[in-house]
Amino acid sequence: MPLTPEQQAEIDELRASARPTLRAVSEGMEKHLYLARPVLDHGFVRAIDYMGDDAAICQAARVSYGRGTKAVSNDEGLIRYLMRHWHSTPFEMCELKLHVKLPVFVARQWIRHRTANVNEYSARYSILDREFYIPEADALAAQSVVNNQGRGEALSGEEASRVLEWLKSDAARSYDHYEEMISTEGQQGLARELARMNLPANIYTQWYWKVDLHNLFHFLRLRADAHAQYEIRVYAETICEMVKDWVPSAYRAFEDYRLGGATLSASAIDCLRRMLNGEEVTQETSGMSKGEWREFQAVIAS
């Protein structure tokens, strides 16, 4: 269960306590506020607060006094122009604060994005819950033979069952020892900050993560990509659904120019021009390495 009855009651109370405001409000994001969106087996993402909307991006770009200075169609055109030409500052005027529950190994990958404000649950002061990420059988995969960072074919049969049993038994045993080490009944007990070092990387942690829209888009471009690790990608995809409702015009531009777009090098553009002029271009005549040529071919393939 991602949420306890007490947590759900708190969420229900928060959503029932509406207050008037003079600040910019995104109706799309309002429906997401406080609600926990389940991710993996015990994780979730929920929006705690936000600042700004599509109009705030345009207002910042024009440094105007308020809303209504341009038509909605012009606003969308401006947002697409800003995205297309990598003018990032107006997007930084919007911010989102999330409460995320995630496995520690996903958190360590996530924190590589050093452009957010983070406050994590402290295992120095509190005791971590007995909750571990155990993958579904179809998410157990062998090492890729072509990508050192990726997965290959899924494990099957006896091998998959053996791996799952090891994951479950190792997690349970390490938590049993964790509890015993910090016990205070009849023994002195080890400090929590030391006892936690025995816990595996698939135990769940939680944090508040606040980020501006420009850096959020950068995170989503990398982590919602099909090549991203599954366990972080499902979090990114859940956040995408929120952002799509929060800033729909900005998200459409992001989908078009970042998620669905491609960046071409000067060599690649030169090759494309030569091809359009009827010239037969090969990897040997392209000036690209084999890896670059392979990626270029993937972009232009019909």
UniProtKB/TrEMBL annotation:
Keywords: FAD, Flavoprotein, Methyltransferase, NADP, Nucleotide biosynthesis, Transferase. Its cofactor is FAD. SUPFAM superfamilies: Thymidylate synthase-complementing protein Thy1 (SSF69796). It is an enzyme of class 2 (transferase). Binds 4 FAD per tetramer. Each FAD binding site is formed by three monomers. Pathway: Pyrimidine metabolism; dTTP biosynthesis. DUMP binds at Q109, W110, I111, R112, E120, Y121, S122, A123, R124, R196, R223. Gene3D superfamilies: 3.30.1360.170. It catalyses: dUMP + (6R)-5,10-methylene-5,6,7,8-tetrahydrofolate + NADPH + H(+) = dTMP + (6S)-5,6,7,8-tetrahydrofolate + NADP(+). FAD binds at T89, R112, H113, R114, E120, D212, L213, H214, H218. Signal peptide: none annotated. CDD domains: ThyX. One of its GO terms (biological process) is methylation. Its EC number is 2.1.1.148. One of its GO terms (molecular function) is NADPH binding. The active site is at R223 (involved in ionization of n3 of dump, leading to its activation). NCBIfam families: thyX. Catalyzes the reductive methylation of 2'-deoxyuridine-5'-monophosphate (dUMP) to 2'-deoxythymidine-5'-monophosphate (dTMP) while utilizing 5,10-methylenetetrahydrofolate (mTHF) as the methyl donor, and NADPH and FADH(2) as the reductant. Homotetramer. Belongs to the thymidylate synthase ThyX family. This is Flavin-dependent thymidylate synthase. The lineage of its organism: Bacteria, Pseudomonadati, Pseudomonadota, Alphaproteobacteria, Rhodobacterales.
